[in-house]
Amino acid sequence: MGSLTPTLERLIRRLPKVELHLHIEGSLEPEMMFSLAGKHGIALPYASAEEVRKAYAFHDLQSFLDLYYAGCNVLRDKHDFYALAMAYFARAHADRVVHAELFFDPQTHTARGIDIGVVITGLRDAMDDAYRRYGITSDLILCFLRHLSEADAFATLEAAMPYRHELTGVGLDSGERGNPPSKFERVFAKARSVGLRPVAHAGEEGPAAYIREALDLLKLERVDHGVRCDEDPALVDRLVREQIPLTVCPLSNLKLCVVSDLRAHNFATLLRRGVVVTINSDDPAYFGGYIGENYRATAAALDLTAAELVTCAEHAVRASFLPAAQKATLLRNIRSEALHNA
Ligand code: ADE
Ligand code: ZN
pTM for the complete prediction? Predict the structure, then answer.
């Protein structure tokens, strides 16, 4: 892998960043897993945080999801969700994240008897404090687990309705293979009817056809991952024509063997083709890097230029659910940082 020039290092450090693909449960670091397990008297099948990290060797999405869902078991009360999100915001602030749209997986918690209100209010308190402490704005996106049924997704949406005002969008995650977007067409229609903005994981492990299906049936505003789009050149044309953003997570793709080597990632090709690609961290505690590290590793592996890195940061602002005035401010800030670094 190539190394970064000091100029690119500095640019990446200083660029104001917007993160659009971050599972808050995927920011649970092993140290916090141990401290919460101790707090709740939960036995972990590991002797130390180091041992947990050693177990993070994945061969596909499911091998990761098995550990990710098991890790969630230590999240029990509102203070746990608050601490989880606050730790993410501190880390994000260090990477100059100025806005983040957080995914959360309520079904992972409600299935263990935890009320959805506990999850949402814990996260919301942290989001409010992150704004006060760091000036970071944030939104919540409720994700349905696609390996569960449509009925379960409907029940989850219903349970979330008392907290409708805390939510910005809905998403779709978990094991993609065999769980096509069509399974959730009706629940997404219902979510859109109450003003929730639709996104979904598609084309991570699943085929390009799932990306098309998600766009057509779920009416997505952006696609999470979407990296398998290049198996269908007409789909890539459409992504460019309609300027549909992809929230790409390069280190995740590497760790989950979606790509064998970052140098073989199609990120730069898609960027140069005119696709609105963005750089994100997905589940940083599991994949060995927060957003800054994703920028650095991608730039080094694919020889991204300063102008291209600035474009990625701008894409994320445009692809966000922020109001136009805040987007304009962030775009100005990115441009002024780029000029300073030139
Ligand atoms: N849940 C958490 N991370 C995920 C990913 N990368 N793909 C699908 N579901 C997920
Ligand atoms: Zn994801």
Answer: 0.98
